[in-house]
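In line with agreed milestones, work has continued on tokenised descriptions of protein folds. One protein thus recorded appears below exactly as we store it:

>
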Amino acid sequence: MHQPENSTPRKAQATGNLTPRGLQTNLTRSLRHRFRRVLRQMVVGSLVMSSLVTGVSCTRAKYRYKTNKEAYYLIDEKIADSGELANRPYRIEVDSRSRFFDPFNPDRPPMPEDDPVANSYMRMVDRKKGYPLWEANGRTNTTENPEWWSYLPLDERGVLVMDIDQAVRLALLHSPPYQQAMETLFLSALDVSSERFLFDSQFYGGWQSSITTDGRRRNNGNNSSTVLSTGPYSRAPRGLVMQKQFASGADLLVGVANNLTWQLSGPNNQSANTLLDFSLVQPLLRQGGRDVVLERLTLAERQLLSNIRT
């Protein structure tokens, strides 16, 4: 049969050569699709990394180690300033030979025996359910070190023989007042650390990202749009903040605000805004002067020195 000249197969019409405009449209769609896929992978990776970092750094053991290190540094500093000679370092940890040594994990201690009525308030208070995991680390019915008897200097007959020196050593090892004095010294060192921190350069900041997608109906029939914004964030006036207080009472505040915006679909526009500002406030009358600003720090330093000598 004779085929008309103007009749071409449907397949040929559907897969004919694309115009430059069609090639550009397909390329743009492919790039957008790839960019969105990479963006999703970056977001998921960031969430995973932030959770890992939080899990590694923000733990009870980490905070306890940093606290002890700071307090012991201040105690040793005051020992050197006072000229006192200590036979051993002043530390809050209890000797493992002492009868009140706690053999359990200091970061996850078990729950000891409690008064039944008082314990009921931990389970239900004012008809509200309490914390359900009080016993997550187990329970214990002991109040002293079960191994302390094995450290006593017994002779071959099992009799405790002591002279004056041995009596003093055991009294110091098992003395609650001496341990209480160590704890008081430790707390006074924490007071000094807290007051010194107020005069350090303190940094605040975080990071936030947001994506906004509007369809055609929301845009009154116009093209849909997808906007991605990212930048630093904090509850301070700026996203990234550095604050420092001086001994005269002056307060310096430096802030940085930055915002990056990408238009993934719709109008082709991107923007980046950065703002850097600072303020310095010096009180002249109220809350001003070294005698007022340094009073709490001076009292904390003097109290720590007094506890060292005590």
Remarks:
- Helices lie at 10-14, 20-57, 60-82, 116-123, 164-173, 176-197, 290-293, 295-309.
- Residues 26 and 234 are 41 Å apart (CA to CA).
- The longest strand covers residues 251-265.
